[in-house]
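Entry, Tuesday afternoon. Goal for today is a structural model of the target with zinc ion bound, before we commit to ordering more compound. Inputs were pasted exactly as handed over by J.K., no edits. I checked the ligand SMILES twice against the vendor sheet because last time a stereocentre got dropped in transcription.
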Amino acid sequence: MQGKEAIIKHIDQNLADLVIKNGKILTMDAARPLVEELAVRGDTIIAVGNDGEVEPYISSDSIVIDLEGQLAVPGLIEGHGHYMSLGESLMGLNLRPARSWEQIVNIVAGAVETATPGDWIVGRGWHQDKWDDLPSPIIDGFPVHHRLSEYSPNNPVILIHASGHGVLVNALALEQSAIYPNTPNPAGGEIIRDSHGNPTGMLRETAQDAAREALAVNLSKRPIDVIDSERRQQVKLAAEEAIANGITSFHDMGETFQTIDFYRMMADEGNLPLRLYVCVQEPSEVMQDKLADYRMVGYGNNYLTVRAIGEKVLDGALGVHGGWLLEPYDDMPESSGFNVVPLVDLRRSAELAIRHDYQMAIQGIGDRATRELLDIYEKNFRRSPAKKDPRWRIEHCQVIHPDDLIRYSKLNVIASIRGVFATSDGPWVVKRLGEKRARQRGYLYRTLMESGITVINGTDPPVEDINPIDNFYRSITREMENGELFFPEQRLTRRQALETYTVNNAFAAFEENIKGSLTPGKLADITVFSRDIMTIPEKDILNTQIAYTIIGGEIKYQGS
Ligand SMILES: [Zn+2]
């Protein structure tokens, strides 16, 4: 009796605030892999079980959700995104759905009508590959600024490409960015010009920085309260988008110290709606004095962690022949892509990361970029053997030489993939790389996983839609928009794909003790799907909805 009383007393102190039951709860915890019910107290899971095991934790005050057989998994973790940009992308003109240049010109013309002269008009997400036909003229594959300039003589216009690797601006924006016919290309970028040498408005890679800076200067001149409320709006919009998609934590790949100050203030107020793992993105000379002060783990009840140096961009995008390759492009034999952030700067960042116990999470797209990064990582690990578990990451991993796969696993480098990139890029990858190289080195997601490398997934929002169900589907099918499969031998299993959104992403953020599985003692971050994406026919996966998003035991989203 004494034993039973002791148990009851123990349970009393642990009555649940929230219970979910009658579900298929895939815990991703080998100890209890599949259960039907789960109890939460505060922000923590206190019990999982079957057949009424969790019943004793329920009181009259507990919220009880009947899952009616729906699938619950550990709260999904977006493994690579740009949080403030995501918020921003929901504020500017959304050009993603545009199916022609004509449509985009009309959207901008509409915005001009209500804009105050002098204000910048910002649009995002356009991609010429999504257009039904191309306008004339087309220079280097992109439209030119003339019609934007005609419709918007008094407002600078900047239209950010879906890849983030280029912008198209109008004449006034060119002028305010001090880009003239005789302006030289910056290192790692290109001002596209017509046959007379006049800028067409398209600014690739680092050439876009001048325009973005001119925009930033213009925006920063607004009153501080306007800027503050806009930032809060960005945080809110990004959160709504993420949470409605079942995302409970977000790896934010590159923010300034100023933005991190803002996040910290939001965390202090209890106003961060989901958990952020933030990478610092600043020049090394700025980082060196500040990294130590900014390192924070689990700040504000585990809503804010800063312990990584993030997405510096080693090379450009593959689609625009920017990815830095070991051998030239098949369809541009004079080019092997290019290096964007100088290696010397990355080496300095890596040294700072070692000194201040930060993780490196750097973008490497081409096989040359990957190799250079592995060289830098390896050198630093060798110099600092005391750092046992650095978990440094390479972001995107689109082209990898087979020799470097072995180095990945030897160095325990984390491969941060975008499942959806394989299928978005698929239609032109073979053109860029040739069929043999594409097969042997391109988007080797299955090979990476089966080489024992920790693979994490995400969609790089706002570059791609944050939707994890679509990304899961693309990861396991490699099905492109046109219905064809892109090297299907690299399909992940459903189990692998789920790992790349849960346990692995927790590990990649040093958070495996509090996230990634539904284990008593861990945070009660839970995603519930309307259908069982682990067993239903593949074609039904895309019709699945998010039923619940639960963060720290709070229901933050409920599907209809
Ligand atoms: Zn990114």
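The mean pLDDT is 94.
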